Amino acid sequence: MTIAIAFTKAALAELQPQNAHYHVKDSNTPGLILRVHSGGMKTFMFFRRIDGRLKRVKIGRFGDITVEMARKAAIQINSTIIAGLDDASTRSELTFGELFDKYYNQHALIHTKRPEDNKATLEFHLMPKIKDLKVSKVTTELLTEHHLAQGSSRGKQQANRVLTIVSAAYNFGIRKRLIRCSNPCIGIKRFKSRSRDRFLSNNELQLFFKELKVEDQLYQDFFMLCVFIGARKSTMLAMRYDQIDFDLCRFRLSEDESKNDDVNIYVVPNVAIEILKRRLESNKLLDVPSEFVFPSDSASGHLSDPKRAFKRIKDRMGIKNLWIHDLRRTLGSHMAINNTSLQIIGQALNHKSHASTQIYARLTYQPILQAVNEATNIMIQGSIRRNGPQYMCYSVSPHVKFGIDRKSPIMGYAFRMTSVK
């Protein structure tokens, strides 16, 4: 606890050290503090809170400078700080567009994944509306209205994403003291996130592969590999030959190339290896072979986004509720249906969090089916013990059979079970 006294040479000289250092403030000079160290040394300090943060400035040791000198120094420091705050308040306030440019160049490009995609998303959905507004004029009401409208017309998850990007820009500006207003995104309720479990069933896969044959070989190979390898779309688009180990049948991304900041290793099944070998041989025949598996004349040098081709395939299939990312989920889903453990599925899809793999738990229903069958067999067996002789025999499991007799509590019938030898 800091005590306040009127600083005089005599009063300060009488202050005694304690087990830990403590502070005494001057009742006559705002911000002037004397720190009494446990060793007995006494130091003049200046304390002032600026935007919630405590600023500490060392003035000098008691004895080396007088009380009056310390007071003059504290007044000068305080005046300098006030002048700086006044300058900041009178400076031209940033527009949101200017703030986002600083956030994008100084933070997003360095510390976030896919900054270009986030920038494109914001420029398409919201930037035309708020780019030229001063940051303090982008209100919670304005953003809430846009959030609700976008959620209804463009999709709730995309609306949440836009709000997250705007919030990140404001937090950056506040943290770097570029702006003095609060974050207008605070308090806006996001749409509830729903885990998506869409994947291609066996019948849909047959139709998908059939309609895929109509497309150019580039798109045929791309979408086939998306299904068989299970990597993210951006990962597949930028796939390079030097990332593929044909002997070990694996596709490796370094921690700088992966989304989860960790080394990602995808297992490449035999059918995918054959596709990659064929593409590699074709690539060698080019005048200028490409490092990318799916080369293009785009600025990146590889295929940018095959969404038009994917839409054509969906249209021919007669389905709408399908995204390219669902191809990645298709691999994991069929592994789950085949009773593959969630740990193996997570490793195959390179999930860093176990929570990302839990969505596949609902597809491992064979153990549940077995448990339900065992429970119903027990219920039927319990009913048989209370009822009469067998009339007609039905199979329940490879080792049990039962028959319909007279009325009973189970579905209106009694069952008798006998072992099958």
Describe the model.
The protein is of the alpha+beta class. The chain has 16 helices and 11 strands. The protein has helices at 9-13, 67-90, 96-111, 115-125, 127-130, 140-153, 156-175, 202-212, 217-229, 233-237, 270-284, 307-317, 325-337, 342-349, 354-357, 366-384, and strands at residues 3-5, 22-26, 32-36, 42-50, 53-61, 244-245, 250-253, 264-267, 392-397, 400-404, 415-419. The strands form 3 sheets. It has a 5-stranded mixed sheet with strand order 1-2-3-4-5. α9 (217-229) packs across α13 (325-337) and α13 packs antiparallel against α14.
Structural class: alpha+beta
Q: What is the CATH C-level name of the largest domain?
A: Mainly Alpha
Q: What's the SSE pattern?
A: EHEEEEHHHHHHHHHEEEHHHHHHEEE
Number of domains: 4
- Gap between N and C termini, in Å? 86 Å
What is the CATH topology classification name of the largest domain? hpI Integrase, Chain A
